Amino acid sequence: MRAITGMCVFSLAVISCVSMAQRAAESNPPAKRLLKPAGAIRTSNVDNVGQVRYLKDTGDYLFVWKGLDGRTVQATYVPEWKAQVTLLVSVRRESDNTWRYLYTLRNLPHSPLQVTAVYMLTNVQPLRVWVEKGWRFVGVVDTYKGKAHEFAENPLVEPSSPLKPGGELRYQVLSEYPPAVVDCFVRTDAPIIRVPEEMPTALADRLPRGFEGGLHGYTLAPTDSLTAERFLEQWRVAIRAGWVTDKPLARQLTKHVEEAVEAVRRGGRSAARDALAAIQKLVDQHQKHIEPEAQALLLESLPYLVR
User: Fold this and answer.
1) Is the confidence at residue 28, as pLDDT, over 60?
2) Is 280 within a domain?
């Protein structure tokens, strides 16, 4: 494995190399690609010690219990997942057989919170990373979900640099490995819940932990363990994520993907190449219905298996 060569902020030259695929990704209606809540909070009476209520007007949660002096105590929890965020990526193969991943993280204008970090679950060390000024690549970090690429606001920049509503962050990763579907998580600056006295344990157990309090979705990141079986699983995740927007087309593509994967399992390279040719033809004919992430899986990851 090649070593990391360093990290730098974007220059005009780097920005100018953004591919047509990335620009196509950015033009898609963002509402179709919103990240979803990573967790959930159950609302009900809790073990006769209090209640958890959902506040429809604000989207917050109210925790209510009897205090030590018998008076009613209330605390409001503002979930991080109220943020309206998209994470789009396109992938380009370079002339030296590396892959350049071009990410665009957006905090939509009507989002009520600022974005402070994004995590993409992968254990692969990048060859190089570029990130716009105000943010930084923290590294491949350990999380309770596994190893992840962490990008976060840079605490050394003044004023602080969280991604504000209406803001956009671009970053790039260069890797010797092809793309795979991975979980991603986004954290925001939702205020920490403040309580006038200790909350009963049964109520506190309802609060999300770690990433569960933020946003979750799927993106692409490098993988060093791509197999035919894993690719087929990941393609099905891509379909569920809506990366092919036309259902009949999704079925056609899946049929050819299954043919290619089965041929790879049997060692039938000729049959696999035939399936790839059919996939290429469909992609060429129906690009507007195939998100850049799905195109990268079909035109980069699958050929990597067939080679």
Assistant:
1) no
2) yes
